[in-house]
Specification:
Layout: E1 19-22, H1 36-47, E2 51-56, H2 62-71, E3 81-84, H3 85-94, E4 100-104, E5 119-120, E6 128-131, H4 146-154, E7 158-161, E8 167-170, E9 173-176, H5 178-187, E10 191-194, H6 200-214, E11 223-227, H7 230-240, E12 243-247, H8 264-271, E13 277-279
Parallel strand pairs: 1-2, 1-11, 2-3, 4-5, 4-6, 6-7, 7-10, 11-12, 12-13
Antiparallel strand pairs: 8-9
């Protein structure tokens, strides 16, 4: 299949769908404000018996993500539960008691080890690295960390990436995320453990929560993922065996200008395997 299906609304795609696994940043908000039509679409779907699990590469626990959503105007009624890459990273830290962690990321992400018996240490003394992002994502890029990553590789430290995203939107700008540093470290020969999309653990956790709410194990044929990233959302859904609705207003917005004019070869080059459907922005 190389043709693209453009849907007018979520209502066209959820017949027989029991669970929606929706990305957050780029789908329900842009980092500065919520998208009311997207929130209403998910709420409407829930009101008709569907379950919505938000899955996010945010390097923070789910309760911290919820507080941010409330500040941005995303109603609690939009979703049933949140699964974050931060939650999965916290499990890794909890399962390695006594080992020294070098934390790389902005102060706002310190909830990643809140309540854990985590021992932090300088890079020279650490047993592993947890990367939640850049210290200053307003001005820095991954290249600013090349020297640090070379030192980490010399010590053969494992880097745990709490946010596999390379970039996200912040308003009308793109800013770098932990995934950019993790990919640099991997290019340098370092060992990286990724938590979050497109990797399986975050989907498995989301399916467990959805099954608890529906009261039975969920058939993947009855699941729809929603996202705005080819690298994380589309790839993750495809590899997990579920359909994906792709939102084009997000990080790939410029690439998708004139998308309806693309020939099959261009579609394959852009997507690999096309999503089930596309929408510029999520609405019912």
């Amino acid at each position: 299949m190389t043709t693209l299906h453009f849907a007018e609304g979520l209502r066209e795609l959820v017949g027989g769908v029991e669970v929606v696994l929706s990305d957050i940043w780029g789908v329900v908000h842009n980092g500065l404000e919520s998208f009311p039509e997207a929130c209403e679409a998910l709420h409407t779907y829930r009101s008709r018996g569907g379950t919505v699990i938000l899955i996010t590469n945010a390097p923070r626990p789910a309760d911290s993500v919820q507080r941010q959503l409330r500040k941005l105007g995303v109603p609690d009624e939009t979703y049933d539960a949140i699964v974050s890459s931060g939650d999965l990273t916290r499990l890794y830290v909890a399962e390695h008691p006594g080992r020294k962690m070098f934390w790389l990321g902005p102060e706002r992400d310190n909830s990643i080890y809140r309540g854990l018996d985590a021992v932090t240490a300088p890079l020279e003394e650490a047993d592993y690295i947890v990367c939640t992002g850049l210290y200053d994502d307003e001005t820095e890029t991954a290249e600013d960390y090349r020297g640090m990553m070379l030192k980490a590789r010399e010590r053969k430290l494992t880097l745990v990436c709490a946010n596999p995203d390379i970039v996200v939107e912040r308003g009308d700008r793109l800013i770098y995320c932990a995934g950019a540093i993790a990919e640099l470290y991997r290019e340098l020969g370092g060992e990286v453990i990724f938590y979050g999309k497109p990797h399986r653990p975050i989907y498995e956790r989301a399916m467990t929560l959805a099954g608890e709410r529906q009261g039975h194990q969920i058939d993947r044929k009855k699941v729809l993922a929603i996202g705005d990233s080819v690298r994380t959302d589309l790839t993750g859904a495809r590899e997990f065996g579920i359909d994906c609705l792709f939102v084009t207003r997000g990080i790939h917005a410029e690439e998708f200008e004139g998308l309806d004019q693309l020939d099959p070869n261009s579609v394959m080059e852009l997507f690999g395997h096309p999503p089930k459907a596309l929408m510029r922005e999520l609405k019912w």
